[in-house]
Specification:
The complex is a heterodimer of chains A (about 250) and B (about 120). In chain A, strands 1, 2, 3, 4, 5, 6, 7, 8 and 9 form a 9-stranded antiparallel β-sheet that branches. Helix content of chain A is about 20%, strand content about 30%. Chain A is α+β, with helices and mostly antiparallel strands. Chain A is globular and about 50 Å long. Chain B has about 120 residues and is of the alpha/beta class. In chain B, about 40% of the residues lie in helices and about 30% in strands. Chain B contains 4 helices and 5 strands. A 5-stranded mixed β-sheet of chain B has the order 1-2-3-4-5. The chains are: A alpha+beta (about 250), B alpha/beta (about 120). The interface of A and B includes residues 17, 133 and 216 of A.
């Protein structure tokens, strides 16, 4: 492969691996989950970032000060080690996501109300000692990234934990659902998650600061066909079977 | 000043084409510098924007998110975006995040400037 011209540096030694080399997941074209977890709306799906989504693009940020006694690295290590435990009731990860390493795939089961469940998953795109990022597959509610980070912002040594979502709804049905209460539900979801971590870290009770910015108000209509992959629709037979059995 | 913090340079390679030279660490903290370079280029009438990643030393997921925001601004202002100077490692990250579907990746500055014209 030809070395891009912009990377040539006369007199420079053979390039060392970039500092971020171990933090990014290896490049994958389609997700694999192993034969025992096939048929879960994840295996064989492509990853989708905010560029690939259908709906308006949103950046949602949820922050909580956890005080001066918790270092950012400590907060992230805790978040990684107990990630699934901080999720609100009604949603659960399978037990494969322990430790959060780049390239991990975890299956996710989300209760949407009325007995409807959404089976989907997430991919660990990036992870270092002070942050990690999950990326969603085709059919997920949204196309995007969720970045969890912790930082000690000047002037004081107070550590802040943060969850930030950069997303577009993946198809027209999800876009409608987001407008009809989905955004509110999502806000509540992340506020509960961040609050749970804060409580675990022993932070004094405080409200989570939430900030929502519409980055792009346009919808990408050429991507409306992504509804074909909609995991909510594809999860319906399973939801119905579960409901029937429960009667 | 943190030596690793991103430094952005702006230069013109035509009446309507500007190159933003990106050096150092690209993280969310680089957003003010990148936004400033972009706004400067836009104010001076750039229709084609070329990102030179030849001096990129480190990038995390916050940096990728920042590039998406830049892409949205450029798209809204009907500006074309291309990039060059990406090492194999960063090219793979652009492919993994599928950012390469929105930003044309080229091998040289000349081809990136030409790609941003098409």
């Amino acid at each position: 492969m030809t070395e891009p011209s912009g990377t040539r540096r006369p007199g420079r030694r053979a390039a060392a691996p970039p500092r971020d080399a171990g933090s990014w997941a290896p490049n994958v074209h389609r997700l694999s989950t192993g034969p025992d977890r096939a048929g879960t709306n994840v295996a064989g799906r492509r990853l989708t970032g905010p560029v690939q989504g259908f709906g308006q693009m949103w950046q949602k940020t949820y922050r909580l000060d956890v005080g001066p006694d918790i270092a950012p690295r400590q907060a992230i290590a805790t978040w990684k080690a107990h990630f699934a435990e901080f999720w609100p009731a009604g949603s659960r990860f399978d037990n494969s996501l322990t430790g959060i390493s780049p390239g991990d795939v975890a299956l996710l089961d989300v209760g949407l109300g009325g007995g409807v469940r959404l089976s989907t998953g997430v991919f660990v795109l990036y992870a270092d000692e002070e942050s990690f990022t999950l990326m969603t597959p085709q059919g997920h509610m949204f196309a995007g990234w969720i970045t969890f980070s912790a930082a000690s912002a000047p002037p004081g040594p107070v550590t802040t934990i943060q969850a930030q979502v950069l997303m577009r709804a993946n198809d027209p049905l999800y876009e409608l659902a987001m407008a009809l209460g989905g955004h509110r539900k999502e806000d509540q979801f992340w506020i509960e998650t961040v609050t749970s971590l804060g409580r675990y870290l022993g932070a004094p009770p405080a409200p989570v600061q939430a900030r929502t910015v519409c980055v792009d108000s346009r919808r990408q209509w050429r991507r409306a066909g992504q509804i074909w992959h909609n995991s909510m629709i594809r999860s319906l037979p399973r939801s119905l079977r579960t409901r029937t059995r429960g009667r | 000043m943190d030596e690793r913090a991103a430094r952005m340079g702006l230069r013109w390679v035509g009446d309507d084409a500007a190159v933003i030279d990106i050096n150092g660490d690209v993280t969310a903290a680089a957003e003010p510098a990148l936004t400033s370079a972009y706004e400067d280029a836009a104010k001076r009438g750039a229709r084609r924007l070329v990102l030179n990643f030849g001096g990129l030393e480190y990038m995390n997921s916050g940096g990728i998110g920042m590039l998406v925001t830049l892409l949205v601004h450029a798209s809204r202002n009907r500006q074309k975006l291309a990039a060059f100077g990406l090492s194999r490692h960063y090219r793979e990250i652009f492919e993994l995040t599928r950012l390469d579907e929105a930003i044309t990746i080229c091998d040289s500055e000349e081809s990136a400037v030409a790609a941003a014209a098409s």
